[in-house]
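Hello forum,

I keep getting stuck at the same step: I have a sequence, I want structure tokens, and every attempt I make locally crashes halfway through. Rather than fight my setup again tonight, could one of you with a working pipeline run this one for me? It's a single chain of 428 residues.
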Amino acid sequence: MTKKHSYLNIAAVLLSVLLVAMPFHAAIVTILGNYLPFKTLLQAWKEILIFIVGVLCAFAVYKDRSLLKFDNTNRIAVVIIIFSLVVSLIRFNELYAFLAGVKTNLVVLVLFLEAQVLASKYSFEKIFKIVLIPAVIVAVIAILQPVLFRPEILNMIGYGPESINAEQFVEYSNQSIRVFSTLGGPNQLGAYLIIPFAMSLVWAIKSRKIIWYLLPLVFMLPIYMSYSRSAWIGGIVAAIVVVGLNFKPKIQLAVGLGVLVLLSTFGYIFYTGSVCDYLAGPVSILVHGDCSSGELGGSDMMRVDSIDNGIATIQANPFGTGIGTAGPASFYTKSPLIVENWYLQIAIEIGLIGLALYLVFIVLNMIKLYIRSKEKNYSVLPSMLFASICGVLVASLFLHTLADSTLSILLFGLLGLVINHRFEEKTL
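Reply #2:
Ran it on my machine without issues. Output:
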């Protein structure tokens, strides 16, 4: 075994540990952090692991440049990292917010590059198990949560106001528990489960075995129980894309336009706050607010207001205010800015140019995945990832979806593995 390959083998093991453990990260930090000192260091284990993997991959690439193709996609990833740092240093505000922004926005792009170096160390079966085994455990815990893991029990082991709120209910309906399993909240759970849901659905269709259709149902139930409307919409979009990939291009285009029209209509109704023109009285599941006064109230109206504030911030700072100044990382600033939209978050942080770079990066990867999804015997992982990203991108219209470390690390890690290697499918 050459030294280069030994570096890669160690890095591949560490990457596998990272991807398998991420769905349990929030629960581990919450519970152990309640009893152990240095909780901040415990929270940073994933970034430390990514750094170690990066060092090992850098040694390997130094010895063999062919391990990482520096194509347009990778060039743009590097440009995004450099551009984000330059904008942030020019507009530097607060150190902790900046570091949190680096963790949220840039570390996953580094992971994307690392995963490409390690792609040859993975098989189809290995990735299938890395994604689905932890996801099934998370889904089962979510399903059992209303019965076995009640808020009072969770509060006893570290959950609460200072960590993860154990008492999460649908607004105006305190009888409906929003499950979050081992993740940081219901929205994070719903968005994360889009990935295993899409993977299991693609495999069920490809395998043509009825038994495999039970697996998507295992993920559909906790997605519903999360009462995350963005995850519902993202899951539906992912399912439509999975089915649509088996149609001819003309039908795919028609389906895509139909989805776009529906999303545009929903977005208009939601963002303008005109939902009360169509729904009277409180609607606790579809609308997290109260229409009884004739106007939308509650958290949904707060979301609309935050989006307006975000747009105004972009207009005032079209070149960005620096990473960490919007989204979850902005909680480390004196004036947190939560705009409930990942695209607005990026535009606020690194400007319209930065958002354009991200969109080009996404489009180029989606094109690669779409082409791979049409290849015989290699299509399950590209199809799954293409559908998952479609669902996540739609969910990101309504939340800071990609700011969640569990989802972003899993998604960017898988993306790096899949676009750089052909994983021959075998019967599981």
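Residues 280-284 have pLDDT under 50 and may be disordered. If your local run keeps crashing, start a new thread with the error log.
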